[in-house]
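Case study.
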Amino acid sequence: MLSGGADFRTRLQNWLPKIVLAPSFAVMVLFVYGFIAFTVYLSFTGSRMLPSFDLVGFQNYERLFRVRQWDTAIVNLGVFAGLYIVISTIIGLFLAIFLDMKIRGEGLLRPIFLYPMALSFIVTGTAWKWILDPAIGLEVTVQRWGWETFQFDWIKDSDMAIYTIVIAAVWQSSGFVMAMFLAGLRGIDNEILKAAQMDGASTFQMYRRIILPQLRPAFLSAFVILSHLAIKSYDLVVAMTDGGPGTSTWLPALFMYEYTFTRNQMGIGAASAVIMLMTIAAIMVPYLYAELREKN
Amino acid sequence: MSIASNDTVIRSSKVTRTFMYLVLVLFALFYLMPLFIMVVNSLKPLDEITSGGMISLPHNWTIEPWLSAWSTAQIGVSPTGLRPYFINSIAMAVPAVAISTIAGALNGYVLTKWHFRGATWVFGLLLFSCFIPFQIVLIPMARVLGLLNISGTTYGLILVHVVYGVGFSTLYFRNYYAAFPTELVRAAQIDGAGFFQIFWRIMLPSSGPIIAVCCIWQFTNIWNDFLFGASFASGGAAPMTVALNNLVNSSTGVREYNVHFAGAIMAAAPTLLVYIVAGRYFVRGLMAGSVKG
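After joint prediction, the assembly is written out as follows.
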């Protein structure tokens, strides 16, 4: 009898880890992968305001790519993501290189560069919305300083408004890229640099041949994180321009929300969400796979 | 030759150094400007802003905009100020952070110290779930919240944030516990310690730093979320970010920029405070979210 009890206890101990993990696993399977499957299914149905389950084939995808706003959203994403990634990376890299040169006041500068990352995109968007508003912000201020012909009304200009989103987004994330590069730079072995210097390498050569190649993982992480943030961007646009003027600052995330919840085109909204997921998966899956494999 | 030091090898001329300082200071000003503008303009009467002096200090200092933003500003339909929404956000973030951190700690412990077949797969699936665009789950989530009858409530948002926060918290604890000596766990097991005893007595006491990282990161994410708040909790249950956006983008009446700035600072204050007090852990959380090493 006693041994039977002990047996049960041992068996329970063996099962316990799995039992503890089970709720998270179940939640993940249902709320992440189950929901993904549901949205994918909806994207093949004629759902409008409410989900419906009648399949219509690829109709939503065909319509999606004929809708003008989706075109706008895709082109905007290209412009936004491209500029956002490139500018943030350049600024982050240079700030990191400069900070790494035994700069006095590094302890003060670093947190200043990084604090925007702690703020929400809604706060950031609100601040930049009014700073860039020609009626009260930068434009009037500079005009009052005496430069009376100064003009900066991009946020009201449907051709330029998307670039103001880039400004705010770069402000938000470039400090984070700086931190990633700084960590990379601090990890480089000084002995190699000393040896190169004895061989007569110039500073420029050392950066080009030794330092930048060693920062490759940091470049890769920065690219993955920034592109992931760019594809998901929603709050910042809502707070700054709410997609306007007109639909000129629509991004796919905004498109999905508008079509699903405001325009009652759930099928098309679901299709756009599926395309967003596939875009992110194309970047994240290989990256995560490589990271996990390296470790095992 | 100079004495060898662990000083940085790259040397720079005086001109380059001056240039570097100049660039660094200019960027510091660029990063600080929005915060400066928010603070300065939240302490001005409205006419000082509309007459075109966003950069200048207030002539007449006033805390009126702060009082208005906090307790009387029109948010949506009623003039309640941001206070109830601030409370909503606290009521949402605190339980969500606590639950997702506890779940993450247990999951990380199981995934690193109790190997079973398929553990890598489970972790891989969890990891990927951190990076999905949440648009892909919005429609079914709205349905499920409706079925559970917690649609449009703080409880609904707590559920949502726990569900989509567990991936990240598991990632943190898993990476932290992976470096924890497994021999200690084995030894305790031989001494007859059970699953939970090992967790309580051996793992948790050394988990302080990672608990801090996880709580800070989850809190920042949940507090700053807008998409879920806007989708699942409209009206009186809305969190702070949604209320701030309603305040700023409401089309009726005079645009009270000073009130908007005061509200923006209120929405930023908790995460900013966390960053100032525990910046080290915040940065570690950021980095752990990017470099999974």
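Observations recorded in class. The radius of gyration of chain A is 25 Å. Chain A touches chain B through 110 residues (CB under 8 Å). We will return to this complex in the next lecture.
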